[in-house]
UniProtKB/TrEMBL annotation:
Record flagged with keyword Disulfide bond: no
Protein name: Bifunctional antitoxin/transcriptional repressor RelB
The entry's keywords: Toxin-antitoxin system
Family: Belongs to the RelB/DinJ antitoxin family.
GO BP terms, alphabetized: DNA-templated transcription; regulation of DNA-templated transcription
Gene3D superfamilies, alphabetized: Met repressor-like
Cited InterPro entries: Arc_rbn_hlx_hlx, RelB/DinJ
Species the sequence originates in: Acinetobacter stercoris
Length: 103
């Protein structure tokens, strides 16, 4: 048998209650739902559903990426294309969310 680990998550109590009710309707336990989610992350190497935020639009994201790419090209770091650098995505999203919070 595989070794298992415990992982704790803090949840909003209302969201937890609503999600647990859905799991019950689906006939699965919350633990099974979490394991299904993790399994899909591993299989798809991505979040297995669309993540959308009304405060972020693709035009803003592409504009920010273009500006960052130009900055990299100016500094001589054009060898690592920005589109392949997944670590910058969260910085870009944080920047966009920060901009939308100000408006």
């Amino acid at each position: 048998m595989r070794k298992t680990e415990v992982y704790q998550v803090r949840l909003d109590s209302q969201e937890k209650k609503q999600a647990f009710a859905v799991f019950k309707q689906l006939g699965i336990t919350p633990a099974q739902a979490v394991r299904l989610f993790f399994k899909q992350v591993v299989l798809t190497k991505s979040i297995p559903f669309a993540i959308e935020n009304q405060n972020i639009n693709m035009e803003q994201l592409l504009k920010l990426r273009k500006m960052k790419q130009e900055q990299l090209n100016i500094s001589g770091s054009a060898d690592s294309p920005l589109l392949d650098d997944h670590e910058d995505i969260f910085e870009e999203l944080d920047a966009l969310l920060g901009e939308s919070d100000k408006s």
